[in-house]
Design goal:
3 helices, 156 residues, 29% helix
């Protein structure tokens, strides 16, 4: 009888130890902690094109007129949440939100505007991107992640 009590005690003790130390619950497959992401101070809001998580600026506002009439309007803002609008009246295109962002993303990746890019180079690259020969008004405001503002207004 003593042997039976001893075996029973060992089995119950073993079961309690296994139940207390094991990880057999609902969250057993979930990792205990997420991977750490290191974010540089300058990349907190809009990100950086080099890291692949942004463009290096928090807002982009472009207006191009041809022959005194609105031709292209492009707006991008991520100060609170990502918001984008794109209108190209020359090609009869008007997009909002994700579709606008997809279109603007192509330009942002191709022309790569930084705070150090010369103003005339920015104008030339954007005009070339849209395939324009001339413009009557070019107005661009870009707020970079570090607080620098690029403001270009060229009226012909």
């Amino acid at each position: 009888m003593r042997k039976l009590n001893a075996v029973g005690t060992i089995v119950i003790t073993g079961a309690l130890l296994m139940g207390g130390c094991g990880n057999f619950g609902e969250n057993a497959d979930k990792p205990n902690r997420e991977e750490a992401v290191i974010i540089n101070e300058d990349e907190k809001v809009g990100g950086s094109i080099e890291t692949g998580d942004g463009y290096g600026f928090t807002s982009f506002d472009l207006e191009i007129d041809v022959d005194g009439k609105d031709a292209i309007d492009a707006d991008y803002d991520v100060t609170e949440k990502a918001d984008a609008d794109y209108e190209n009246k020359l090609k009869n295109i008007k997009l909002k939100d994700n579709k606008a962002m997809d279109e603007l993303n192509k330009m942002f990746i191709e022309i790569r505007i930084t705070k150090d890019t010369p103003k005339q180079e920015v104008i030339d690259n954007i005009i070339q991107w849209y395939g324009l020969d001339t413009y009557s008004k070019f107005d661009l405001e870009v707020d970079f992640d570090d607080g620098t503002l690029l403001d270009i207004e060229d009226i012909k």
